[in-house]
TrEMBL record:
InterPro entries: ComA-like_MBL, Competence_DNA_uptake, Metallo-B-lactamas, RibonucZ/Hydroxyglut_hydro. PANTHER family: DNA INTERNALIZATION/COMPETENCE PROTEIN COMEC/REC2, RECOMBINATION PROTEIN 2. CDD domains: ComA-like_MBL-fold. Transmembrane segments: none annotated. Signal peptide: none annotated. This is Beta-lactamase superfamily II metal-dependent hydrolase.
Length: 306
């Protein structure tokens, strides 16, 4: 019904929607305090925001450039906004400046709050795969993109850009234009800062992993954001052996009905000697790097991983 409204009403409508959603946000029941602003020292930080059974990852370079990958569920806007405000420089209107925003694929748990992020941030480039979802959430995102006069960069393997002089981002997936499963449209982004790499895989499943292997991409990464919340449909043995991460992060909700992460995936990671961090246990997880070493910070409990 929103489509029939005159265009000038859209920003107001979006603001009203944001307000309504904002009011409905449940208080966060966390035992730990939110992580402070990332280290001001010369480090790249990657913050895996605890958005429950969903994904939202904030990359910030030492020079203050920022990239947001995914925006949790609809009710996660407040927590994401809090991290943006604390970590990212603002423009003259007080809006967080995001050089790049990526919606890995149009499932609710990845683009849930993206319409609100688009409406409230200064975004340089928005990257989405060429995939549509017949949902209100996706439609709201398109309306917000239109209202913000943003152009969408169709995300696919081969796209590469620099966030700053030392930080390079490369898309390794999607490698095909058509998939049966929406998860396989997931943008897989490799972020490299000096000698350290992060592989952020959205919900890419085995089919996409096999395509990346076939293409002969350099998959090696120090940190792997485990695909699809640790489901057994991702993180195949061959793929994992090629990534060979030192640490892995699983973005997953406590007691989720999907029973993520799967035992198979956890065993695979353990067998490879990878340190595993889970947002359901550690809350928000931040990994910083000076370009050679990794530094871990978690919201709850010890930062050792398991
Ligand atoms: Zn997901």
């Amino acid at each position: 019904m929103f489509r029939r409204k005159p265009l000038s009403v859209l920003p107001v409508l979006l603001a009203v929607i944001a307000l309504i959603i904002g009011i409905q946000v449940k208080p966060l029941q966390k035992t730990g305090a939110p992580l402070p602003s990332p280290s001001p020292r010369a480090r790249l930080s990657v913050t895996f925001i605890d958005v429950g059974q969903a994904d939202s990852i904030l990359v910030r370079t030492p020079t203050g450039h920022a990239m947001l990958i995914d925006a949790g569920n609809r009710e996660d806007f407040e927590v994401i906004e809090r991290y943006l405000t604390a970590s990212v420089p603002s423009d003259s209107a007080g809006r967080p400046k995001l050089d790049v925003v990526i919606g890995t694929h149009p499932h609710e748990d990845h683009i849930g709050s993206m319409a609100q992020i688009v409406a409230s941030s200064a975004i340089g480039r928005l990257c989405l795969p060429k995939a549509a979802a017949n949902t209100r959430t996706f439609e709201d995102l398109l309306l917000a993109v239109k209202a913000a006069n943003l152009k969408v960069t169709p995300a696919k393997a081969g796209i590469a850009f620099a966030l700053d002089a030392d930080t390079r981002v490369e898309f390794l997936a999607p490698n095909s234009a058509h998939y049966e499963e929406l998860n396989n449209y997931s943008v897989v982004a490799k972020v490299t800062y000096k000698k350290i790499s992060f592989l952020l895989t959205g919900d890419a499943e085995s089919l996409s992993e096999e395509e990346m292997l076939e293409r002969g991409y350099d998959l090696r990464a120090d940190v792997l954001k485990v695909g699809h919340h640790g489901s057994s449909s991702s993180t195949g043995a061959h793929f994992l052996s090629q990534v060979a991460p030192k640490a892995a992060v699983i973005s997953v909700g406590k007691g989720n009905s999907y029973r993520h992460p799967s035992r198979t995936t956890l065993k695979r990671l353990k067998d490879q000697g990878t340190r595993v961090y889970r947002t359901d246990r550690s809350g928000t997880i931040r990994i910083e790097t000076d370009g050679t070493r990794l530094f871990y910070q978690v919201e709850k409990g010890a930062s050792g991983g398991s």
